[in-house]
Amino acid sequence: MSLRASCNGGYDGMGEIDAVTLFEKIDEMTMNIQKIVDEPYLDRLQLVLESLYFKESTESLDEYLKEELKKIDLEKISVTQIRKAIQFGILKGMKKSTQPNHSMTPESIALFIGYLADKLINHQEETRIFDPASGTGNLLLHVMGYLSQPTIGYASEIDPSLLKLSAVSANLQKQHVELFHQDSIRPLLLDPVDLVISNLPVGYYPDDERAKEFMIRAEKGHTFAHHLFIEQSMNYTKDGRYLIFIVPNNLFDSEQSEQLTSYIQKTSQIVGLLQLPNTAFANKENAKSILILQKKGEDFSPIKQPLLVILPSFSEPKLMENIIVKINQWFKEQLGIL
C-alpha cells in the first residue's frame, strides 16, 4: 500500500512561534486527547498533527481542543521550527514506547548526511530519494530540506504508526513524499532512484525463504536484515548513483561480512566510510558509521582513494570545520565536485 504526502515548497518564512513553544502547545493537546482516548502518545500525536494540517479536528474532540487548534497559524511558523517541534513530540513519544524499532536519527547526523547528499547529487535538476527504513521520516525529510534543488521522496516502513507520522510530517514540512506500507525486503513498486539514504535497522531478518532470493544471504540460519537492506536498496538505485547508509561499526567484521564484501565488490564501490563520534550515541557499543556506496554502471569511474574519516564530536565546531575542509578537498580531487 502506498500513501502520498502533498507538497508545495521548502524551508521558507520567518516564524513568530519557536519550536519549543509550538511543541508545548502540541504536547498539551496530545496529553488532553489521551485523557479522552486511551491510546499511545505517538498515535495521539499523529492525530494532533493531522488536525493542525487540515485546520480542523479529524475526530470528535471537546471544545477546548478545537479552540486550541484555531490559535495556531502554521503560515506564521517557519518549516524549520515546525520540523523541530515535531521532533520533540516524536522523541517524547518514543521514550514512552517499548517497541525497539521506535527510534529516530539524531538531528546532527541527519544534517551531516544532508551535506553529503548535496555533494553527491551535485545540483542536478530534480532528485528522487528513497529511504527503505524510513521510521518517522525524520532522516529523509532532513535531507530533502537541506537540498536546494527540487526533490521527490520515497519511503518504506512496516510500522503503520510511524508511517502515519511520516505522512503528516511531510505535509506540515511541505515536502513531496510517497510512502509505502510494507516489508521493504519484499518487492517494491518503485522505479530506480538517484539516491538512497537510510539508518539501517540492525538484526536478523526472520523470513529465510525471502532471504534465499538475495545474493547476500547467509549460508546457514537467518541473514542480517541490514545486509539485505543494502542489496535491496542497490536494486532500486540507478547505475552510477549513490547510497548513504548509517551502519554498525562492525559491519565488515561480523560472521556474515564475507558475503557482504563480495556483494559490494561485484555491484558497487565504497566511496567513503566515516566513523561517527561516540558522543552521538548513548552507548558507545552501539556507535555507528556512515557508509557511502556508488552503484556500478556505464557512468561509473573507479575512485583512487575512498573517503576514510573519523568524525569529531558535533559539539566541537572548530574540529568539525577542519574536517569539512578536508572532506570538501577530497570531493574536489576524487570526484571533481566543488
List keywords for this structure.
Rossmann fold, 41% helix, alpha/beta, DNA polymerase, domain 1, 9-stranded mixed sheet, globular
Strand/helix succession: EHHHHHEHEHEEEHEHEHEEEH
How many DSSP-defined strands?
A: 11
The pLDDT mean sits at 88
- CATH class membership of the largest domain: Alpha Beta
Indicate the CATH architecture of the largest domain: 3-Layer(aba) Sandwich
- As a whole number of angstroms, the C-alpha radius of gyration is 20 Å
Give the low-pLDDT segments.
6-15
Named CATH topology of the largest domain: Rossmann fold
CATH homologous superfamily grouping of the largest domain? Vaccinia Virus protein VP39
How would you describe this protein?
This protein is α/β, with parallel strands linked by helices and 338 residues long. The protein is built from eleven helices and eleven strands. The strands form two sheets. It has a nine-stranded mixed beta sheet. Strands 6-7 form a two-stranded antiparallel ribbon. Strand 3, helix 7 and strand 4 form a beta-alpha-beta unit. The chain is globular.
Can I get a quick summary?
This protein is α/β, with parallel strands linked by helices. 41% of the residues lie in helices and 19% in strands. It folds into two domains: 8-96, DNA polymerase, domain 1; 107-335, 3-Layer(aba) Sandwich (Rossmann fold), CATH 3.40.50.
